[in-house]
Design a protein that fits this description.
The protein has eight helices and two strands. The radius of gyration is 21 Å and the shape is elongated. Strand 1 and strand 2 form a beta hairpin. The chain folds into two domains: about 15-35 and about 135-180; about 40-130, Winged helix-like DNA-binding domain superfamily/Winged helix DNA-binding domain (Arc Repressor Mutant, subunit A). By secondary structure, the protein is mainly α. It has a two-stranded antiparallel sheet.
Length: about 180
């Protein structure tokens, strides 16, 4: 990951540089893992979720992300046009509630879901698309965030302890590779 770290390293008070590196790490992992779904998977996911209960768009996005273990988070730019298309087709309906549109299946939508049981959990496929490694980047980013937090708010002794833990973790991870 050349170029992902500040030129002067993390010494001194370069906390902004450390946070910048964490964000760079996150963006690289997100690009590598791939959070894009195949054509029709957003539609299937929306229908499967609305078969359970009415939801607004943001709830749908969060549910898909949660059920896929974080490996698939569809963008608003894919979910909302899908919702509009399904509403235009008469598959779902929308009601305004507290300034938000709440979507629910129509009778035609319930029939479509009933006739296509294979599309009942498309988020499960998203978890395996990345070769089963979707949890590794997430764990790496979370570790980097914890290290950045210690660097920002910890005492010098806590920072030294965190460095020792990270050094040990790095050695153990390389040892895992050496076993294979």
């Amino acid at each position: 990951m050349r170029g992902a770290y500040p030129a002067g390293g993390f010494g001194g008070n370069n906390i902004d540089g450390m946070w910048q590196a964490v964000e760079e790490l996150r963006s690289r992992f997100e690009k590598r893992v791939g959070t894009r779904a195949g054509k029709g998977e957003v539609r299937a996911a929306v229908l499967a979720l609305l078969a359970e209960r009415p939801m607004h768009g943001y709830q749908i996005i969060r549910e898909i992300e949660e059920r896929s273990g974080g490996s698939w988070k569809p963008s608003a730019g894919s979910v909302y046009p899908t919702l509009q298309l399904l509403a235009d087709e008469g598959t779902i309906s929308a009601e305004e509630s507290n300034g938000r549109k709440i979507y629910s299946l129509t009778e035609a939508g319930r029939e479509e879901v009933a006739h296509d049981p294979a599309a009942s959990a498309p988020w499960e496929a998203a978890g395996t698309q990345a070769g089963g490694f979707a949890s590794l980047p997430k764990a790496g980013v979370e570790l980097a965030q914890a290290a950045a937090q210690v660097g920002r708010t910890g005492s010098p002794e806590q920072v030294q302890q965190a460095v020792a833990v990270l050094d040990e973790a790095r050695r153990r991870i390389y040892a895992i590779l050496a076993q294979g």
